[in-house]
Please model this.
Amino acid sequence: MSETALPTAYKDPKMPPPVDVPEGPEWVGMLKVFDAHAAETLVSAAHTLYPHQTLPERVYRRTIVAFDALAAKMPAVAQGFAEFVDLVDGAMPVPFRELSESYRVNTLKAIEATAAFRLVQRSTVRFLYDDLEVWQAFGYEGAAVQLGGYVNRGFNDLDWLPEPPPGI
Amino acid sequence: MMTQYELDDSGVVVIVGSGAGGGTLAHELTKRGVKVVLLEAGKHLTPDDFVNDEWGGYEMLSWLDKRTASGTWRAAKDHPFSPSWSCQVVGGTTSHWSACCYRFIEDEFRAKTLYGELPGTSLIDWPFTVADIEPYYELAEAKMGVTRTNGLPGLPANNNFKVMYAGAKALGLNISTGRHAINSIPYDGRPATIQDGFTITGDKTGSRWSTLNVEIPRALATGKLELRPQSRVTFIEHDDAGKASAVVYVDAAGVTHRQKARAVVVAGNCVESSRLLLHSKSARFPDGLANGWGHVGRHYLRHIIQTVWSIFDKPVHMHRGEIMAGMIDDYVRHDPARGFAGGYYIEMNSMGLPTTAAFLEPGWWGRDFVSVIEQYRNMAGIFMSGEDMPQPGNRITLTDELDAFGVPVANIHYDDHPNDLKLRSHGYKTLSAIHAAAGAKRSIEAPSYPASHNLGSNRMAAKAEDGVLDSNGRAWEVPNLFISDGSTFSTGGACNPTLTIVALAIRQADFMAKQMAAGEL
Model:
């Protein structure tokens, strides 16, 4: 078993395909609710919460695109994200997204008990780790039924521990 | 064409909920010739609708209506609006379950006698013994195709199991892949598992037993069942004699109907069943139907459930294969020397990246979390299900907030009993020790996720003053009202509850059919 080769990850064919997010700053143009400042502040918050150094910027942007879709459907959620941006921007004399990492971390720690923080933190976990590119990066293969499951594709291929007896 | 009954046909048994209890009972009654209307709040999906996707499946199958939570349990903090979890779909929570099938042991039917007086608890003995239920366990195992019964082989060892096995062997524990209602070989017209690891999002291949793929189709084939999906029950009415007479429900178009009934069976999973009874108030039952003794909603149990996730040096790929195919039974029996009452099963557990991240420690963020989740590929999971103590104050109540159907939103209050915390701590130490013995670099003690073993809130008792139901799951105060879900459990036992719910439903069908034949129901 290779230590480095990561298996290919798949989304179920019935699920919507991953959103294509532009690489440049114009990506905010695809948002329905957030303005550029709110969007970039939320990207910065997602980065601060879950700072994966190997993940590209676009996966964090996709997370915020998912927030935006949620906000477009639910006004109360839109309000929560707006409150979050105000809260983190009001903490220091510099906007949140321009702060250094330690100041961003401290700003978030100070508001952990708020509903707005909870919304952003839980939503980040919900969408960041549901991203096909993140699955691929961390070795989660996702949907399997369309490939016949794992019965012939390694459900029992772990070879670094003793093999249990048949019929155990 | 499916059989159809008139709304004013008072000869039908109306079952509310199509999961392990309600779906099984519908089949068992119809095959005995009884006319049944089965009302299910959720949609009638097919395997083609299901997805291999954790959140996609969750959103498709779950009962997502708001609930509130209070008390010292972690769910009140982590999942304040979804502290308990079940499904809203034809097949109920059997569309999701991971199919562990263990029987209650003899001791667990006499918890009060065995554990003695434990301050703060409301323990009782079950109103029957293991000998009464054993024949029904055998029938349930046969119909569900439980591995290691009736000559069916166990599920094969997968990667996550190999980790659990290495640790268990090093510690001298008794381990196997356990018993599951998942086909290891083709059985009963259903295929063997393809080990896709997505049993819990609907099971596209049908290798796992559910009421959706076994009981309900067979009940329909009798010509005696009318299944009405997307029928949200809001009220149970009774007549002047105090017998249940009709069920009020709202259909998919928002139209309210009233189905007359010969008998009513509530099988909506713990929270919804208690909520429906509490809401069905009348002059005769001012505190809710069958609640003269005040037990409806009380003694709520949710098991001591928790997972330890550990990181190893090399890949595990725990998501490959059936997710709970591993079991250790050394801690099942009550042993006072451990310092607490009751026992627990150790089982294997696997999750995909999305839900591992969500449930590892809700609220956890920062570089430490990142360093753990980045090693998902090298993670293994191990789980326990243990007995929690019934307490009268742990209960489902109605709040002042109304849902879209005008029914009050339920609150679930749960305070951990000291015995629960002792068992929890003991269990965490055992789970972590097993992974450590297999070479874990780091173990994370994850808290309970939303309660899925919801039990006890309409319990059976030998005496009317101790519970809601008699030993056949019939309300003491309403002779043609039955409950058929985990809420009937007198105490929780340690094991996953579905097999027992199914066995009790078969037993209840026998009782109801005999009562009907004798002209008493």
Remarks:
- The first helix of chain B runs from residue 20 to 30.
- The domain at 13-517 of chain B is CATH 3.50.50.60 (FAD/NAD(P)-binding domain).
- Chain B has a mean pLDDT of 97.
- DSSP finds twelve helices and 17 strands in chain B.
